[in-house]
Amino acid sequence: MFDLADVQGNILRGYTGKPHVRYLILEVADAMAARRWLAASISGRYHGVPQITTGDWGTAKPETCFNIGLTYEGLRALGTPSSSLAMLPNEFIAGMTASAAKLGDVGHSAPEKWPAPFNEPKRIHLIATIYADKVEQLEQIQQRALDRNALTLLGTREGCTFPGEKERDFVHFGYRDNISQPRFEGVPDSQRHPDRQPKAPLGTVLLGHPTNLEGLTWRVPQPAELGHNGTFNAFRVLKQDVAGFEKYLDQAASFLLQHPRVEELLPPGNEEKIGKGLSRCEALREIVAANLCGRWRDGTPLALSAEIPDPKMDLTDFDYVGVGDSRCPHGAHIRRCNPRGGQIVQRIANNSRRLVRRGVPYGPPYDPAKPFERDEPERGLLGNFIGASLGAQFEAMSCDWLNLGLQDPRITGSNDPISGANDPRTSWFDLPLTSGDPIRLHGLPEFVSTRGGAYTFLPSISAIRYLGSLTT
Amino acid sequence: MANDESWFGKFVNELHEKPWFKCAGAWTLVPIWARLTPVKPLPGGVRPSIQPGDNLQSMMNLIMPLKTENRSPIGRAAAALAIAKNRDQIFAGLDNVGTVHFARFVIVNDNICMFSVYDGDFTNYIRDFIATIGSAFNDVVKLVEGGDAVTPCEENVEAFIQWIHEHDLYQVPDTPTDFLRDQEYLEGDKAVSPVNDDLTLLPRKLVLQLRANKNVSLGSGYRAYPGYSVAQVRKQLQLGW
Ligand code: HEM
């Protein structure tokens, strides 16, 4: 059986109650000292190194949470035996920058343009994450975590959920996020939003357990205590151009206002139902935003309610078959990322590429009252895309589904409207209409660009103990 | 490039056209060059492109040398039977994976070759095939040199994909600069490094590369029309997808 206490807590829990998140991007300064640091991080007894939060909280909720991920270079720097290193998957060994073309990290998003510390990917060894209620706690834990003999701090990234009980689930671009996650047998936290999708086998997110692809197993780096119950994470710093996004909604709404079939999209009189006091143009903006994502900004899935956002609708219990199929655009973000039971080209892949997502916004919320200022501060999402196989899940989704649209001939050759590497000269997106042919939108720019990232291995508690005890 | 036009430069660069040189070169000069400037084999398959449409109808050219004990008419017949036996499975696989246009098996000398045209990412294509018709792959690959280490493929997914990738032919780009860029890419660990575009060195570099990659694909295949996915074609022809 599987032991929650052996798994790092951030894999199976969302820590949704902790609004402040700080990433410490670290380099191993001295292997021996770093190994001592790791050993201390699970005993919590040495020099006050913060204790790694596991999946088993017992009765008391921790005040702050602390988790780590190691890059390939990090595992090497710690002295992991070469026979174990050789068992790691290729994409992890080569690192995120080697997959740039597959991930759409080109143009503005190209790794050569990433700011420090991501401009020196090989120096990034360990990424530690602190989750807390208050900023002061982040400071305290950071102080305790930094043992200069063991680790050199290369840089930090910090995010914070939007203030307010209602707002905390929202992200830049104004959508409600953090709704859909794979549900796992025996993991209570993942049952937050029950739906009709099959439960995900534990091997979706932990090495050494059965995967969704029948009979297929991912290689578990040996010794077993190193690989078993570990997983991989794609950490991404994704900059969001909120002003550009809002401007595009304006542009699309004016285009639609002139369109001969606009009344099908927005029957006159429906504006009020889309949002209180909305003009026709404003209502059309919301319709476009909803279609790009596959959810209205309040989270209502289009598959359940295509005409208006409806808070009474279930947030996750829907599918892309029957009416659900025709209501949600084939190219919408959430449909590209998870086709659920809908028809796709790769018939065996409907449920096999699922990811656990842990993200938090960074940068100040966008203020629509002061739009298009020249010096918009950088804002975006610090995203973690977690799965037992980077190749079969994160990369497969990014490359074939988000960036190529291979899963459905009606979207092939177009990029994801929200996170894709779009070029306004070639991009397009189809808004479905009940009467037949869709209305095609053009000119979508790149709303999201990559500003850094790394592939990390999220070791189990046993693995951290093992790494801490290495002597070479 | 100061001595571009010098008699010696010209002499060296035209050497490969001289009959006497072809003989002497193959046996003595090329191995010496190769010692002086070691060249790593270039990886096979197409490089993912940033243009979504370019990632359709990519070509895979697998050349898999049969095990020594199978290098005989009997061994080649075993390979032929392994394919024939799995015929129905292969069709079922094509249907379920949904991203393969054509696949051909060919025996050339003592190699079993698989040539195919697929859409999207290479590793997804192979992984999806393992998941659907892994046993057909196993039947063929276990006749091949090095195949035992990666079968059954269902339990060696990562190693199997890597192995297939290593047997996929390097696709020599149509333009010399792209070829030079591929070489530079292999040398450095940076995504883009400055390219040495000295084309006078090309013949020499190509010879050395073809020593490291004995079999290659010339170009990435030529199409009479822009790339379309299997499903786009099937949909257009109203065959269902
Ligand atoms: C800044 C960039 C991004 C933004 C603003 C964004 C936004 C959203 C939103 C609003 C949702 C709906 C909320 C939910 O269902 O929980 C969502 C769902 C999702 N996103 Fe993203 N996303 C971004 C990038 C990505 C990337 C890069 C990936 C994958 C490589 C991804 C994968 C997913 C997945 C798997 C879902 C859940 C779909 C489902 O299960 O129905 N997202 N995203």
The CATH topology of the domain at 52-170 in chain B turns out to be Alpha-Beta Plaits
CATH class of the domain at 52-170 in chain B: Alpha Beta
Oligomer: heterodimer
Mean pLDDT of chain A: 94
The neighbouring-strand order within the major sheet of chain A is 2-3-1-4
The shape of chain A, in one word, is globular
Low-confidence stretches of chain B: 189-193
By DSSP (H or I, 4+ residues per run), the number of helices of chain B equals 9
Largest beta-sheet details of chain B: 3 strands, antiparallel
DSSP E strands of chain B, number = 5
The CATH architecture of the domain at 52-170 in chain B can be given as 2-Layer Sandwich
Question: What is the molecular shape of chain B?
Answer: globular
Summarize the structure.
Chain A is α+β, with helices and mostly antiparallel strands and 472 residues long. Chain A is built from 16 helices and ten strands. The two termini of chain A are 32 Å apart.
Structure description:
The complex is a heterodimer of chains A (472) and B (241). Chain A is an alpha+beta fold and 472 residues long. In chain A, the strands form three sheets. Chain A has a four-stranded antiparallel beta sheet. Chain A has a four-stranded antiparallel beta sheet with strand order 6-7-5-10. In chain A, helix 9 packs across helix 12. Chain A is globular. The model of chain A has no long low-confidence stretch (mean pLDDT 94). Chain B has 241 residues and is an alpha+beta fold. Chain B has a domain of 119 residues: Alpha-Beta Plaits (2-Layer Sandwich), CATH 3.30.70.100. Chain B has nine helices and five strands; from the N terminus they run ααβααββααβααβα. Chain B has a three-stranded antiparallel beta sheet with strand order 1-3-2. Chain B starts with 6 loop residues before the first helix and ends in a 5-residue tail after the last helix. Classes of the chains: A alpha+beta (472), B alpha+beta (241). At the A-B interface, helix 6 and helix 15 of A face helix 4, helix 5, helix 6 and helix 9 of B. Bound molecules: protoporphyrin IX containing FE. The site of protoporphyrin IX containing FE has 27 residues of chain A, from strand 5, helix 14, strand 7 and helix 15.
